[in-house]
Design brief:
Rossmann fold; alpha/beta; 44% helix
C-alpha cells in the first residue's frame, strides 16, 4: 500500500516526502509544477534531493484533471492521501482569486471524489493559520470562529476544510486538516519573507517591511511541521482539525533583527504600508495537537534561522 502525496515537489511537500521515505514508506507523488509561485527548476531540485532518501513514483499531473486522478488511483494501491497541493500565498490571491478557487477548491473536491470511488478513506489535508482571519483573541484555538477570512487564499483554505467535513459526513472515513503557521526553513519559496530577507540582507539591498514592524507571526520550522504531519498520518480518527505552530510569537521587527544577526549584516529597511489581506498576528494553541498527535515543536527561531542560513549559503554559491 502507498501514500499519495499531492504537491510533493513543493517546499512542505518535498520535506514530507523525505520523511516518509526515511520511514520506509511507499510514496506516489503527484505534482503539476504549477508556475505561479516559483520556477519548475526549483521543484525539480526538491525531487532530486528527495531521491537520495529512497525511490518513489512521480506523476506529473493536475489535481483538477479527473482522468489523471482516476488513472493514478487505478494503477497504484493507495491507502492514505496526504493532500498538500494548492496555490499558496495571501497577497497573490487578491489579484488572482479565480485561480485560487479553481485549484484549491475544484482540485480538492475532485481528489475527494476520486479517492472515495477507489475506496480510500484516510486523508490528511494541509490547511492554514490564515483561516483565523483578523481574530484578536490569542492564542488561536481550533474551537475559535473562522467565518471571517480576509483574503481569497484564506477563504479557499477554510472552504477546503468544509469540503472535507462534508465528505466525512456523507461517507465517513478519517480526515484530518492541519492548520500550518508560517512555515520556514531550507527550500522555502524564494518570495517568502525569511528567504527573501536573507537574500536581500546578504546582498546589502533594502528589505520591505510592511507596517511598523509590530505585526507578529508564529514561525514554525519545517522539521517540526513535518513531525506534526507524520503524527496526523499515524493518528487518523474521524474528522479532526489541528493547529501546527511553533509556539513562539515574534514581531516582524524582531525577525529582521534575528536574520541580520545570523547573516552578519545590518538590514536596510524600506517601510511600506500594511497590505490588504495581511493579519496583525498569528499564534497557535497547540495543546490539542500535542495531546492527540504527540506534536512538540523543538526548533527555536534562532536555531532554525541558522540552519536555513547554512543551507542558503550552499545554494547561493552554486
Amino acid at each position: 500500500m502507498s501514500i499519495l502525496l499531492t504537491g510533493g515537489a513543493g517546499f512542505i511537500g518535498s520535506a514530507c516526502l523525505v520523511r516518509l521515505l526515511s520511514k520506509g514508506k511507499r510514496v506516489v507523488v503527484l505534482d503539476s509544477f504549477e508556475p505561479t509561485l516559483y520556477k519548475r527548476a526549483l521543484k525539480e531540485k526538491h525531487l532530486k534531493w528527495a531521491r537520495a532518501y529512497g525511490d518513489f513514483d512521480f506523476i506529473e499531473g493536475d489535481i483538477r484533471d479527473e482522468d489523471r486522478l482516476q488513472a493514478v488511483f487505478a494503477k497504484h494501491s493507495i491507502s492514505v492521501v496526504l493532500h498538500i497541493a494548492a496555490i499558496a500565498g495571501v497577497r497573490p490571491s487578491i489579484s488572482q482569486p479565480d485561480l485560487y478557487v479553481d485549484v484549491n477548491l475544484t482540485g480538492t473536491a475532485l481528489l475527494l471524489k476520486v479517492a472515495r470511488a477507489h475506496g480510500v478513506e484516510k486523508f490528511v489535508l494541509a490547511s492554514s493559520s490564515s483561516v483565523y482571519g483578523g481574530n484578536t483573541k490569542t492564542p488561536f484555538s481550533e474551537a475559535d470562529p473562522v467565518d471571517a477570512p480576509i483574503s481569497p487564499y484564506a477563504a479557499t483554505k477554510r472552504s477546503m476544510e468544509l469540503l472535507a467535513k462534508t465528505d466525512h459526513h456523507l461517507h465517513g472515513g478519517d480526515i484530518t486538516c492541519l492548520r500550518f503557521f508560517t512555515v520556514y526553513g531550507p527550500r522555502q519559496r524564494p518570495q517568502m519573507a525569511i528567504h527573501k530577507f536573507m537574500r536581500l540582507i546578504a546582498q546589502d539591498k533594502p528589505i520591505p517591511m510592511f507596517g511598523d514592524g509590530t505585526s507578529a507571526r508564529d514561525y514554525t520550522y519545517i522539521d517540526d511541521i513535518v513531525s506534526g504531519v507524520m503524527g496526523a498520518i499515524e493518528n487518523l480518527d474521524g474528522y479532526r482539525i489541528y493547529n501546527l505552530g511553533g509556539d513562539q510569537v515574534v514581531s516582524l521587527r524582531e525577525l529582521i533583527d534575528e536574520i541580520s544577526e545570523v547573516v552578519g549584516r545590518k538590514a536596510k529597511i524600506e517601510q511600506l504600508p500594511m497590505p490588504p489581506g495581511d493579519v496583525m498576528i498569528t499564534y497557535a494553541d497547540i495543546q490539542q495537537a500535542s495531546k492527540d498527535l504527540g506534536y512538540k515543536p523543538e526548533t527555536s527561531l534562532k536555531s532554525g534561522l541558522r540552519k536555513m542560513w547554512a543551507w542558503y549559503q550552499t545554494v547561493s554559491s552554486n
